[in-house]
Every structure is written in structure tokens, then in C-alpha cells.
Specification:
CATH architecture: Sandwich
Number of strands: 11
Strand content: 35-45%
CATH superfamily: Jelly Rolls
Number of helices: 3
Helix content: 10-25%
Strand order of the largest sheet: 1-2-3-10-5-8
Length: 167
């Protein structure tokens, strides 16, 4: 990419997975460039436990999150960076009284294609069809391994049910 680009927030490719979880892709990458996104989450919101073959860097720019990466749980606040290596099970959720906002980079890009496929599956009354989510994830090289962190915690544990991939 040799041409400068400015993407206005209002022009970002935007997906919602609930009324309180919004993902805005400022740059939708490919195998040669990253995805860059902003995610906003209400307290308790977050993705299911999952893994994927790309690297993720996320900076918390507002609020607080609890994150499970592999077998380790962390809390992160504004200014903190979370690095997730490829193929490591992970999930997170916003914690505290207010929403959390993250700026993320995935390398290589292409995550926005997965989000485009998965976001409509959340636009139903009640919980989404996790079989359909898993199938959509698999089409893009990702795996859904379990429920969101809030459900893992309410079930009495936050350890991932599946160990990190050996690939």
C-alpha cells in the first residue's frame, strides 16, 4: 500500500452483534495488509471463546476489559495492549460500570469478511445459533471453542475447554 488513506469513522464498515456491541473496520485488509478496527462493548459483552490463525493486537482506549488468553486471565484498562498470538484460545468482555472501547489490528487481514458473515447471525431474538457461528468461523479459518467469558465465569471457571492448537 503506497497511497495514503484516511477513513472517517462515519465511513467505516460497521457491524453490530448486539445493540451494545459495535465493530467498525477502518481498514479491511487481506493477506498483505492488516485489518484495523474499533470495537465498542457494554459491560458483560464480548465474543465467544475462539481461536484463529492471525495475530491480534488490541489497545484499550476506554473502559476496562477482562481477557482470557490461553490459560491466563488479565484485566486491562485504557492504554493497555493485549497481544494474542495465532491459534491461541481467547475471549474477553467489558467489565465495570461503563462501556469499553478497543482499537485492534489483525495480521494478516481478512477478519472483516468473517465479521460480515457472522454479524447477521446475532440479529435474532435470543441467543445466536452457535452451530451456524462455528460454520461461518470455520469458513474463514477460525474456531468457536466455547461460550463468551461472562458465561464461562458464571459456570464457575474461566479455563478454556480446549488447549492451544499445535499448528
Amino acid at each position: 500500500m503506497s497511497t495514503p488513506i484516511v477513513t472517517r469513522g462515519d465511513d467505516a464498515l460497521t457491524f453490530t452483534t448486539s445493540p451494545t456491541d459495535v465493530m467498525r473496520f477502518l481498514a479491511g485488509g487481506d493477506e498483505n495488509s492488516p485489518d484495523v478496527y474499533v470495537e465498542e462493548l457494554a459491560p458483560g459483552d464480548g465474543p465467544p471463546l475462539h481461536r484463529h490463525p492471525w495475530v491480534t493486537w488490541e489497545v484499550v482506549v476506554a473502559g476496562r476489559i477482562r481477557v482470557l488468553v490461553g490459560e491466563d486471565t488479565y484485566e486491562a484498562g485504557a492504554g493497555d495492549l493485549i497481544f494474542t498470538p495465532p491459534n491461541v484460545p481467547h475471549t474477553f468482555m467489558a467489565i465495570g460500570d461503563g462501556p469499553a472501547k478497543l482499537v485492534g489490528i489483525n495480521w494478516p487481514g481478512g477478519f472483516h469478511h468473517l465479521y460480515a458473515k457472522m454479524a447477521p447471525l446475532f440479529q435474532v431474538a435470543g441467543p445466536p445459533d452457535f452451530g451456524a457461528l462455528a460454520a461461518a468461523a470455520a469458513e474463514h479459518g477460525a474456531e468457536i471453542l466455547g461460550p463468551p467469558l461472562a458465561h464461562l465465569e458464571s459456570a464457575g471457571g474461566v479455563q478454556p475447554p480446549i488447549p492451544p492448537a499445535d499448528r
